[in-house]
Fold:
Amino acid sequence: MKTTQKLHEMGQSLWLDNITRGLLNSGTLRRYIQEFSVTGLTSNPTIFDHAIKNSHDYDDAISRKLREGWVGETMFFELALEDLRQAADLFRPIHDQTNRVDGWVSLEVSPLLAHDTAGTLDAAKELHARAGRPNLFIKIPGTKEGLPAIEEAIFAGVPVNVTLLFSREQYVAAAEAYLRGIERRIAAGLKPDVGSVASMFISRWDVAVTGKAPENLRNQLGIAIAKRTYKAYRTLIDSPRWQQILNAGARPQRLLWASTGTKDPAASDLLYIKALAAPFTVNTMPEGTLNALADHGELEGILPAHGGDCEEVLARFAEAGIDIDALAVQLQDEGAKSFVKSWKELMACIASKSEALNMAV
Structure:
């Protein structure tokens, strides 16, 4: 039995953090579902930028959309929705079989809206309606301005993947925004079953402290932050407030591990996968990491609900002068800026492709 299947049977969902038209048309994604127990998929602007820039798979679609009058951002969302609808259809049997717990794909609102509450909410509603698929999450950043948009989107019945979360505190704020949205639906007599995941970014912590912390703490910060957050997740789910909405028919917002590809070439390529095995969570991983897990992965146990040694490890980082709270804010801000940079590169890529294809006509 492949380790991917063992992890799935243990209760963790394996999602692919990638989408390309080639991945869909070649049957590779279908194979990952059948052979590697992949049950969902996430996307972001960088993934689409690379997919469009590094292949000709989108050329015909771009040419057709140019003739139809699509340009820039509106063209991108048409291209992305074509891919994600196809992926959503592949995952739809899983979505139905798990009673809508699993089998999701994700599309991000424009990163330019990261600090625009009203704009984010409007975009989330529009994109979800245009997608026309029940198993499509709209990704909304867990920034200060994103939190009210998350609450309103959930209240409006839009499934949300909360992105750009880096700490326990940021996760709890996102979970409470989701909870408020569900409580309002219950009070309004609406069905409380609106899906959501909260995406914690892991590896960027270790990148951020490389060369700034003692060598014996190398590659330990991201995992310690994840353990601390997992403890908060389990505590929230067991709280009376959550039990009350669950009794009314709601679901817990699942915790998702993101940015789980190893960045340190000297570390195991499965560092974060092995450390973050936990039931009722999601791990969305790059394609290379997924293949490595299927090829030579081994599980080392389940993440402890009480967080294990996370506080001791985090205390050692504090002793080394690492301000965890300040770094969490910095990482979220840098993450938002990085997404904007990727978005602008994506728009430039589409403009360049459009110009080249126009000239070739």
